[in-house]
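ok trying this again, last paste got cut off
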Amino acid sequence: MGAFSISSIAVILCCWPLAVLSFLRHRGKKSTIVWGVFCAFIGFWGIASFFASTTMDKAVSTMWWRFATISSIMSPPTFYHFAHLYFEEKRSWILVVVYTMAAFFLYANFFLPGLFLGDVWLIHNEFYFPNWTATKGILFVIFYFSFFVVLLSYSLWLMIKGFRKAKGQARNKIKYFFVGMFFGWIGGHGDFIPVVINNFYPYPNFLIAIYPLIIGHAIIRHKLFDFNFVIQKGIVYSVSIAMLSLLYLVVVILVEGIVQDAFHYESKLTSICIAFLLGLIFIPIRNRVQAFVDRKVFKGTPQEIAKQNELLRQEAANAERYKIMAGLTGDIVKEIKDPLTAVNTYSHFLPKRLDDEEFLKKFATKIRIEVDRINSLLEHLIDYSNPQPLSVNSTNIFKLLNETIVMLKSNLLSNNITIERHFSKDEEVFVSIDQKQFNQALVNLVNNAVEAMPDGGTLTVEGKVTEDLFHVILADTGVGIEKKDIPYIFNPFFTTKEGHTGLGLSVAQGIIENHKGAINVISEVGHGSVVKIKLPKKADSEVARQG
């Protein structure tokens, strides 16, 4: 195994993690999917070039080089496709042209070998390498110039233009894209040089493995593609351990070769012992690299980071609670004014009608109702400022729905939102829930609906019972949610609105799921959203224990 074969392993180990990550975390973004396809093609190049360079069978090597050429043909169009989507270029006809050319070059690769890839030749007495000059592969020259010179140069130029227009964090993202891809571009060109300069060894293939490392750094430090932090950390460890493993493999091969030349042995047991001894050195190095990554990149050990993340989550949750409480305070003040006005009015008439028994009864009843209303509103405010552990009790769910609507009515009216109740507030259906926390979930969902209707609209609240389930349905006529965002709306910190923590829906989902319920959202842009909650009427033993 030579240096070129090792460089092919480096390409595999560095490119495939990026490809897999892009497919798993694309969040519906076409540019991220295309980027994953591009990385997959480069990774496939590494696989094919490895097998092509580790066999001395000319026919087998030729076959693998034809497979590797598939990646060579498809990687420039897919990279341009990514740049086209990322920078929102309007010249879609170029995509049609380049993919049509790619289809033709793929055909030529397998069915017109004399005009394309040609033959392979032995270089440095080590491995077979494509030699398209031997058969004067004119189509290969056209392919190289049009794709690796013109198309990739144009793609990099799109990045430069995008960099000039971008600001802030967006500039950093584009900068890392450009630098990483520039290294990959130079590395790709290096694999064409041995055909022109016979004594040139294709060491630049190592440069192809550098671009995933640069992009990986950008994913971690600059939230490239908005990938999740936990997965980002896994990438750093995977790449660092992969590179160390590659270094370990190279050292084993070199040391074993030196020792074999010095002592002229052919014992496999000796080779295994050498590899074992080197492994004893490798393990402490790996641990030191992990500690270095923790300290320099993530600013702490895994335990410290977990503790910091938990504190951040608590702070964000508290911030969300305070934000809701601040909004509720204004609503509650407005709601308190009405009962206080009624009490004040009755109190003015009271001295003059002390002998009116009917008036006194009516006055006492009215005072009690209005005081209870004020007390209920204040209790809601206290609940938000002093959260308690989950406490499950049998609760009249229809009454709770009505109280939530009453509490938020002022906010709804001030935003020109009409409320429609599709349930009877006098009906009694008891459900085993934590009344306070479930009320918080409802408030979060209603406030989210209000924010989705900046120009006013209608909020429909429906409650119904089916067998052992109670259903709460909240439907708004707001702006709706894009289809690509719906799978992520309950993710903590996911938000499309500036100034929001992205915890409101996540908190609501957590409360509902703690009650062994389920929540899902159906939405269409421009037509509003429907939130459906399913809640078991009776608490199971696990929920009950949480109280």
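PB: full thing came through this time. The mean pLDDT is 76.
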